[in-house]
Hints:
The chain is an alpha/beta fold. It has a single domain, classed as Rossmann fold. It has an eight-stranded mixed β-sheet with strand order 3-2-1-4-5-6-7-8, with helices on both faces. The N and C termini lie far apart (55 Å).
Amino acid sequence: MxxxxxxxxxxxxxxxxxxxxxxxxxxxxxxxxxxxTAETMAYLGARVIMACRxxxxxxxxxxxxxxxxxxxxxxxxxxxxxxxxxxxxFAEHLPDVDVFINNAGVFHRPGELTKDxxxxxxxxxxxxxxxxGKKVLPKLEKCGHDVxxxxxxxxxxxxxxVDLAGxxxxxGSYPRSKLCLARYSEYLAAKYSGTNIRVYMDHPGITMTQIxxxxxxxxxxxxxxxxxxxxxxxxxxxxxxxxxxxxSGSVVGPGRLFCGWGYPxxxxxSKRALCDIDRLIGFTEKEIxxxxxxxRGE
Length: 298
């Protein structure tokens, strides 16, 4: 099917840098915004690694891209963000990459748990990303070239609050997980300032995906009449920030209608993403530590 003419026009006009020769790894790339992000990267000549939980779906998605872009270099890796053992295995075999995009996520799954016993939404969208960062960022820091590390948040994080006493409550778990991810990203941007790692946040705005159907419920049919983004349009945030001079620590997403739709630009950070960061990081470290097996001699 390929990219639309409007998308190609935007990329050719606004994405001024080149990704030729770059390796881009995208988690959760077999569908939705992740898949379209992989397509835009392949269009610009990047080598693409699709890191997904379901290898069969990932291989099918990779083949569909190769059907449209026979020249593309696309491979798949297995990564389950809801399983520390899978993250450990993935990190052990992490190849050299120039761009690492944390896109994988889940929405409203009350009562379901990760392999390690966390609430599935918080455990996948935030704790899994946090644990993955602990494993891969030290390796990326030693790779000898610049690396863009991108965490995918959501504008709904602006509506969330983080109460550590009710951290795993099902109600509001998705926006809360994204607020935690935004705070974690701020922490990483400060931690890796002055190194080869540049940390960014991107978000798709309000996009017509399966997650949007859960958010809007029975009103979802009406959103199709509103000027919200297509999945393809929302996928442009990552490629735009990678091909323009965007400062580390920036948030990039749609620039119109309360940052809900339109083409990407740098967004103003929310106040909620800038507070209580150290307390959240300390809490998360302790939560992860409580789940990990104690090694002999410790």
